[in-house]
Design goal:
The chain is α/β, with parallel strands linked by helices and about 425 residues long. It has a domain at about 170-410: TIM Barrel. Helix content is about 40%, strand content about 15%. Helix 10 links the parallel strand 5 (about 210-215) and strand 6 (about 235-240). The longest helix has 22 residues, at about 105-125. The chain binds ligand LWAPGFLV and magnesium ion (MG). The site of magnesium ion has 6 residues, from loops. One of its GO terms (molecular function) is magnesium ion binding. It catalyses: L-fuconate = 2-dehydro-3-deoxy-L-fuconate + H2O.
Length: about 425
């Protein structure tokens, strides 16, 4: 990998907070943003990667990526992928930098950005979309990308190999795509009129599963959930997402008050680190038929391992940019399979839909072979900034065909949205 005299690491921000897109009970003014990485090889190939942030602080992730750059620059793609587990370890276990994590926080976000770019590069070098690169790999090669350190008490390499039975029903995905749900109708900052209109439009486009933000005010939540349930009807699926707003007892009583609206799950009811709290909430809500979903702020495989061991979640929400890229997502997909907990990826952010569709396709084709209680999140924002945007048909993700991991942004978009020097930001700051 070379720097080729160019910056490889950029702070790109979109002012989504202006219209309250992406807003929730804890993140009231998110500007969907990315630390964006471009790797250059000596033979002229490029790999694009990103990690998702909310605006302020993206510059810190950019600096963390720069701190990791020395571990990547100068290495060949072949050397990296020959021992991808070793390379993952190199990034996450550097004797000095691991103090900043380990495998969590800003340094883990940076690891994700760098490794996402490496995976993109690998898929491009092979001329395949990333999901197909994974599907075509031998189980041994998949397993060789995973760091099993800290998880062998629940998943050994041998068990992982036994799970990876080989490609199944790829044709079904090519024809039908992977089922999706939408979060874009009901961000917390949207008005009643917007909620109703967006749900009505989404129903017309074939959406049947809807996620609603809750957690700021109970009366307001009752009002919004009633409005949405009335609009989508009794047979469509509703999920609610509190983005970590409550204490444990508060979560149980609040969600009980919303149970008449029949949500399938409550997402992130409390601190993302409180595994036993999630277990208590799961236990209390099970009689109401409401599961607990979490994972978008679950930084590593060890946390997921304990969530699974403690029966603290009923839906695993992997995140392509929070975990350590594809390598660590593979570990979580395999553990979720072992515990028979469905995976429903998180995708609320810029680029997350583009990335995570590859992982869930691999999960279906090579790991779970099931669509029961499974769906991938979709948000209808900012896809126009990508060179290979997601394709949704009848509320399903259609498998991407372009080589790579779908995270290359249009150069014009990057230029316009670079912070603070891009035109978008100059204009906003001069207002
Ligand atoms: C700040 C983000 O938009 C967050 O609300 C996304 C999220 O929780 C989700 O998509 O789920
Ligand atoms: Mg969420």
């Amino acid at each position: 990998m070379t720097e080729g005299g160019r910056r490889i690491n950029l702070d790109v921000r979109f002012p989504t907070s202006l219209e309250q897109h992406g807003s929730d009970a804890m993140h009231t003014d998110p500007d969907y943003s990315a630390a964006y990485v471009v790797l250059h090889t000596a033979c002229g190939l490029r790999g694009f990667g990103l990690t998702f942030t909310l605006g302020k602080g993206t510059e810190i992730v950019v600096l963390a990526v720069e701190a990791l750059a020395d571990l990547v620059v100068g290495k060949s793609l072949q050397d990296i992928v020959k021992d991808f587990r070793g390379f993952y370890r190199l990034l996450t276990s550097d004797g000095q930098m691991r103090w900043l994590g380990p495998e969590k926080g800003v340094i883990q976000l940076a690891t994700a950005a760098v490794l996402n770019a490496v995976w993109d590069l690998w898929a491009r070098a092979e001329g395949k979309p990333l999901w197909k690169l994974l599907v075509d790999m031998d189980p041994e090669q998949i397993v060789s990308c995973v760091d099993f350190r800290y998880i062998t008490d629940v998943l050994t390499e041998k068990e992982a190999l036994d799970i990876l039975v080989g490609a199944q029903e790829e044709d079904r995905m090519m024809k039908e795509g992977y089922p999706a749900y939408t979060t874009s109708c009901a961000w917390l900052g949207y008005s009643d009129q917007q909620l109703k209109q967006l749900c009505t439009d989404a129903l017309k486009s074939g959406w049947t599963k809807f996620k609603v933000k809750v957690g700021a005010n109970l009366d307001d939540d009752i009002h919004r959930c009633r409005l949405i349930r009335q609009t989508i009807g009794p047979n469509n699926t509703l999920m609610i997402d509190a983005n970590q707003r409550w204490d444990v007892a508060e979560a149980i009583s609040w969600v009980t008050s919303l149970s008449e609206f029949k949500p399938l799950w409550i997402e992130e009811p409390t601190s993302p680190d409180d595994i036993l709290g999630h277990a208590a909430i799961s236990k209390a809500l099970a009689p109401l038929g409401i599961g607990v979903a979490t994972g978008e702020q679950c930084a590593n495989r060890v946390m997921f391992k304990q969530f699974l061991q403690a029966s603290a979640l009923q839906f695993v929400q992997i995140d392509s940019c929070r975990l350590g890229s594809v390598n660590e997502n593979l570990a979580v997909l395999l553990m979720a399979h072992k515990f028979q907990v469905p995976v429903c990826p998180h995708a609320g952010g810029v680029g997350l839909c583009e990335l995570v569709q590859h992982l869930i396709l691999f999960d279906y084709i090579c790991v779970s072979a099931s669509l029961s209680n499974r769906m991938c999140e979709y948000v209808d924002h900012l896809h126009e900034h990508f060179t290979s945007p997601v394709v949704i048909q009848n509320a399903h993700y259609m498998p991407p065909k372009d080589p790579g991991y779908s995270c290359e942004m249009l150069e014009s978009s990057v230029q316009r949205h670079q912070y603070p020097e891009g035109d978008t930001w100059k204009l906003l700051m001069n207002k």
